[in-house]
Design brief:
It contains 5 helices and 2 strands; from the N terminus they run βαααααβ. Strands 1-2 form a two-stranded antiparallel sheet.
């Protein structure tokens, strides 16, 4: 990543807190397991606002609960 900065995805934590499986969330938001896994592991290069909105709707969270900016190397 440019400048050594990173966006961290907290999907595992949110799923655990809500007692929901990755499979259940994928079905509810209309994503494939593979695409949700890419997002969950932080390997995604982008996320559509419609996808982010659907995830937040299903998990009852805000985008800031799901994504965090964490500078690296400080």
């Amino acid at each position: 990543m440019a400048g050594g900065n990173s966006i961290t995805v907290h999907l595992d934590r949110l799923l655990e807190e809500r007692g929901m499986t990755q499979t259940e969330l994928a079905e509810r938001v209309g994503l494939t397991q593979a695409n949700l896994s890419i997002l969950k592991t932080g390997k995604a290069k982008a996320i559509r606002f419609t996808t982010l909105e659907a995830i937040c709707r299903e998990l009852g969270c805000q985008p800031g609960d799901l994504l965090a900016y964490e500078p690296k190397g400080l």
